[in-house]
Amino acid sequence: MIDHMLQEIHEQPAFLRELINTNKEKIYETINRIRKRNSIKRIILTGCGDSLCAALTSEYAFNTKNLSTMALPPMEFSGYKYKFYDLLDDETLLVPISVSGRTPRVVESIHAAKSKNCSVLAITNNPDSQVAEMSDEFIYAKSSQIDSLKSSSYEGEVSSKYVGYEHDIPQTKSYTAVQMALLLLAESFEKNPDYSELEIIPDIIEKIIGNPLIKELGTCHSSASRHIYSASGPNYGNALFGEFKMYEFSLVGFSKEIEEYCHTAYFITEENTPVVFIAPQDISYQRTSEIAPVLKKIIGAVPIILSEVQPDFDYSEWIEVPYFGSEENSVIPYGVFAPLFAYWVAKERGLNTNTFRGGVEQEKYVEGSYYTIRQSKIKKEYKDQ
């Protein structure tokens, strides 16, 4: 049997290279078409689940281009924020993100944006989807074969209707595809975009995926009762993504911003708890250097440091992330660890990595997801309020 999750993890470098080479000019042309119609002064990024994580990791890249940008859950946007007169108008660009192109809350966010004359540029893995059709323009993330999005491996009468993914597994390559599409989009706002930092990322990912220590750590810490991820700035979304990958195997995961970790999740950190700190040099690294030694010496926890250089403070494990570019573009290399780590934790626990919940009652939970997500009612009519 093909191990689809591991296969998709290893496919990331190749398809990211293709995504960059085939899409960077198209994205530049797309955003210029939009800007000819409307001046863009602010951007809203929105999506659910992994797509929200990708939005959170990317808002900093847009802000460095002097574009006021926020990443919001779509229900927060369409239910509340769209009502703010000074937030939305024809100089606002909504970027709705949906890998399947079928997420009702994301569809709803487009209706809300259109009611305020916002421009809409979607990112999706499904060019035939409702999200793509409703948007003014869309970016095709192309991490899956289109035909594979029309069926699922689930066998139940209801669960089999939950389609939109190449394989019914915790997603990995679709996440990095969306991140890359967003970073390409951010760079394309420049008059003379420089994609060189993004072009080296596939090679860096290849090195990280090939690091045998990630498997060792996943195997070693598979019996831990909880796993904690902590990050700040652009990489906070990657910490949340790490939490989500644990959930998808029905494991206990937590994520906290680095400073907030000290105020909250610190109190559920126990002996042998693995705490993954995403700590690129400068602000996150310096704060982690104060926290990690305390966790190791006083509590007996296991700080796992993700950084480009070997830490000069006391820690338990170090995963090298050999990226030395801008921090806002670091989010793809730093996001690769979490799903691979979760995969090896699940594998060591004897869980089925070819489906959600490790194969435990997955049909029941997918049926529930179909009703709670895909069958959710969509509000289409939005009036000026």
Radius of gyration: 20 Å
Please state the oligomeric state of the protein chains shown.
Answer: single chain
Q: What portion of residues is helical?
A: 40-55%
Mean pLDDT: 95
Uncertain residue segments: none
What do you see in this structure?
- Helix 2 packs antiparallel against helix 10 and helix 9 crosses helix 14.
- The mean pLDDT is 95.
- The chain folds into 2 domains: 199 residues, 3-Layer(aba) Sandwich (Rossmann fold), CATH 3.40.50.10490; 147 residues, Glucose-6-phosphate isomerase like protein, domain 1 (Rossmann fold, 3-Layer(aba) Sandwich).
- It contains 15 helices and 10 strands.
- A 5-stranded parallel sheet has the order 2-1-3-4-5, with helices on both faces. Strands 7-6-8-9-10 form a 5-stranded parallel sheet, sandwiched between helices.
- By secondary structure, it is an alpha/beta fold.
Which SSEs are present, and which pair or pack?
Blueprint (H helix, E strand, L loop, with lengths): L3 H34 L4 E6 L2 H14 L4 E5 L1 H6 L12 E7 L5 H12 L3 E6 L5 H5 L2 E4 L32 H15 L8 H4 L1 H9 L2 H9 L6 E5 L4 H12 L5 E5 H6 L10 E5 L4 H17 L2 E6 L9 E4 L10 H5 L1 H12 L13 H13 L11
Parallel strand pairs: 1-2, 1-3, 3-4, 4-5, 6-7, 6-8, 8-9, 9-10
Helix pairs in contact: 1-6, 1-8, 2-6, 2-10, 9-14, 10-14
Give the key terms.
14% strand, alpha/beta, five-stranded parallel β-sheet, Rossmann fold, 2 domains, 385 residues
Give a quick summary of the entry.
With 385 residues, this protein is of the alpha/beta class. It has helices at residues 4-37, 50-63, 74-79, 104-115, 130-134, 173-187, 196-199, 201-209, 212-220, 236-247, 258-263, 283-299, 331-335, 337-348, 362-374, and strands at 42-47, 68-72, 92-98, 119-124, 137-140, 227-231, 253-257, 274-278, 302-307, 317-320.
